[in-house]
Amino acid sequence: MNAQRKILCPVCQVNFILKETKEPGEKVICPVCGAVLIMVLKQDQIGLERPKDISLEDEIRQRMDNFARFRGYRFNEMKEALVEGLLKKHQRFGDFYCPCRIDNIQENVCPCIYTRQGDVEINNRCHCGLFWK
Ligand SMILES: [Zn+2]
């Protein structure tokens, strides 16, 4: 595996530089959205996939915890209701779309593009009130 190569996050769709050498099956955390991902090898190409061996709840909790840690954000008592909302969205629409937004589109997958682009810095919180400054 080559170090210092760009790899696509299947959650936030951003290419990031993979700094460490990883082998297929190893865990990688997206530095942009915090998603926990697994390195896979497909037709001699390395790629990342969402883990299949953890529950959906663990997947979204790990992602939001990583993202908050990277950015220095915190949660408050609204967190549990929003985790539930995200799980319901996944159940109905197939992905962790923001429970507070109507459109179930890629940009609204948690952490949504607005949050990733700095909404919390401007408003002290994300649209939902999941992430707080
Ligand atoms: Zn990502």
TrEMBL record:
Tell me the GO molecular function terms: oxidoreductase activity, acting on iron-sulfur proteins as donors
Q: Which Gene3D superfamilies match?
A: 2.20.28.160, Ferredoxin thioredoxin reductase catalytic beta subunit
Q: Which domain of life is it from?
A: Bacteria
| Record Pfam families | FeThRed_B
Protein name from the UniProt record: Ferredoxin:thioredoxin reductase
Taxonomic source organism: Atribacter laminatus
Organism classification: Bacteria, Pseudomonadati, Atribacterota, Atribacteria, Atribacterales
